[in-house]
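Example (one chain per record):
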Amino acid sequence: MKKWHPLLFLILTALAILACNLSVSNSATPSSSLISVDPEESDSVRSTSGPESTSMSAQGEPVPATIPKIATIHHSPYSSTGTANQAPAVASSTTVAPIVAQPPQPSISYFRSSDEQAEPGDTVTVEWMTSNAITVTLWHLAPTGQFGRYWDVPKSGSFDYIIDLNERNYSRFALFASIDADNSEMATLSILLNCPDDWFFSQAPDICPAFQALSSAGAVQQFESGFMIWIEEEEHIYVLFDDSGSPGWNTYVDQWDPSDPDRDPTLLPPDDLYQPVRGFGRVWREEPGVRDRLGWAVNEEQGYSTIIQRTSYAKYNETYILALDGGVWRLLPERSEWQKITSE
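Predicted structure:
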């Protein structure tokens, strides 16, 4: 038998091992994956030839110096065509909110009175019918429209109301039918009031006076720049300024007492002028700005019988005072200004 040269045998053995490794490596690489090689393993993978890469076994068979390791395979997120692999589609679901049934809303079928007109002091009846309400409240409204007195009433029914003697023009009501604070319905009702009083003068405003004409003892005094008027029944003194200042007129409580001095002896008026006395004098001396704006009196105060009335608007009312000469002092709202209405 022909004997193989040892060196030739080793070379053939190494080539066989190399071919086997290449075959294993190619079969382990899928088309859709990338192969990464551990740097510590690269030398053994690359060691494919040379005498130093093999050794002899105990039986004299040549063996590799280092057994090659199979490279670790990491799956790539990209396909072999370079495009990203798509995740499996997940069916989406839409949550639909449940439909909550709304409770029936409260309603007012009617809110009325059989009395279309009435007099102050009369008793009127209001009636109503509601549905789907939990609470029903009846309000009486102030002349300004603000809520006044109220009553908790049945869901349907009637109510007797006594009109106050001081009410004028209208008596107004409001009815609330409610489920809660956010769900309610309102209805209003107005009853026309006949005017019980007449004005004391002919050139009167169109609205009803707020009260019957009040007759009173009074007094008036003229000043260099205005007038003072005293109304005993009201215990008030009206000051009418005849200059460009503000307010145009004002009113003060008459606080003079007969035990008080009626004048200030240290104040000496110029010739033909006068220092006001008693209640006029106290307001003139002590109220800020009154003396400076009015000046000295041009005559002594004069007493007479006067009358006073006011309009009955919800606000911004006018005051009318009978003057000594038969005319009428007209005091406009908010102390803004005043006028003199001459007698016919």
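Caption: Helices lie at 6-27, 42-46, 278-286, 290-294.
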